[in-house]
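Title: Prediction job returns without error message
Component: structure pipeline
Severity: low
Priority: P3
Assignee: unassigned

Description:
Job completed but the reporter wants confirmation the result is attached to the right record. Sequence as submitted:
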Amino acid sequence: MENLLQFAAIDQHILTILVIDIAIAILLLSAMRFIAGLTAKVNTTDELAVKDNFAFGISVAGSVAALGIVLTGAITGEHSVSYEVEAIGMFAYGLFGLMLIKLGRLIHDKFALQHLDKIAEIKNRNISVGIIDAASVIATAIVIRAVLIWVDGLDVYTFVAIASGFIVSQVILVLVTRIRESHFAKNNQKDCMQEALTDGQVAIAIRYSGHIISTSLAVTAASFFLVYTPETIVENLLGWLIFGLIMTVVVSVLTGIAKRIVLWGINMAEEVDQQHNVGVACVEMAVSISIALILTALML
């Protein structure tokens, strides 16, 4: 009987935490939709339901999914000290994550795909740009979530650590974008990947999305090698950068090998870059993400 009462008390505690977390999550997810509209200077209802702008819908979906990913890292569940701490932590981390997602999108626009007017292209219903926009915020969210799980407590040091992990992820994502552009130019008579995306080549957008999401998963591997301590923020920043770069190279090499085996007999550059084969691009994306997920799972 005593065990049953203890179990009921635990269930009530978890249920209350669940209600708090879900309420805050819905509030923040709703805010993300309207923030997307403010950023693009459009009415989200008109874009989604009147104009049927699929590109804008994909972009908003990516933002909502990204925030949802971040919020999973903020939940403490039954380990919460109190309901107040859970609510404050969930809201604070969620709001900070929302800000970093928007900042990450800005960095991606200005430094990774600087020749592409993403907002204008999405307004013009460019689905390929909508896809890479969604993928970029999801990639950023994956790293933020990993750092949220890695840190301990709720103070200024945890926010500095989260910002540090965010900075590292953005540096590596920009670097990977430059490398992918170089590969694209090499395989396509020095054509520009960003111009291809502007032209609406969905297959290229899908493959690129696979690369940046798998890269973000590789960067999260740093959390398995480093121990969080508030006094070693600089060391942690360097550690995230070093391990992130190492794992990015490892994932890239293994992904390249896996793609050649899975897509044996298929000229991937010709099919995706020149014939815009969405099917082959989807397989490439799946292989990239799968290899990254397997490697990160091995680190647990």
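Comment from assignee: result matches the submitted record. Residues 2-298 form one domain.
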